[in-house]
Please model this.
Amino acid sequence: QVQMVQSGAEVKQPGASVKVSCKASGYTFTTYGISWVRQAPGQGLEWMGWISADTGNTNYAQNFQGRVTMTTDTSTNTAYMELRSLTSDDTAVYYCARGSYYAEYFPHWGQGTLVTVSS
Amino acid sequence: EIALTQSPGTLSLSPGERATLSCRASQSVYSSYLAWYQQKPGQAPRLLIYDASSRAIGIPDRFSGSGSGTEFTLTISRLEPEDFAVYYCQQYGSSPWTFGQGTKVEIK
Model:
């Protein structure tokens, strides 16, 4: 069965960077794209961007352009999301989500990683 | 960017009742590429409906989706206790993919 297992919770100071991992299993990693979605406390879902696990091509939401980098490691079937210049507004649960074979709706999600930005 | 507006913000219903949730898009959604998710506290979202009306694997048939263009609806025919949660719509027809702000279905 498809599983997406994310790294553990992080506490970061303002101005720092965070890198969250998402290890996929149960399917051919390079067949599907992976998106990152975040959710601030008590708020809705916000799509951050997408990466092709095959080509490494990316598509970032404008809100995160210049501050986020998404990568994949096909040798370990792991996707990464790095967010820089953190502020308290970046405190959120960050999810990875696998798309379908033809479009970017999300049948499979990671469990979420809480990133807390606090001095 | 396509903005999605969900209504109502909160729906207060009793088990056994019918729930009708709306998702309105600011522009036509290409190919009816619209999905619905259910989220419970402390959990990741769960896909219910994709392509506006196709049920995801394992989703009970009391969940149904309809609509096209800019107007979409999620219907829960008879609410079960486990259906009380927050529901989000998402469009994936035009980048950036966007989510609605959510509708909370609570027990009356």
User: Anything to note?
Assistant: Chain A touches chain B at residues 35, 37, 44-47, 50, 59, 61-62, 95, 100, 103-107, 109-112 (CB under 8 Å). The two ends of chain A are 40 Å apart (CA to CA). Chain A has a mean pLDDT of 97. The longest strand of chain A covers residues 18-25.
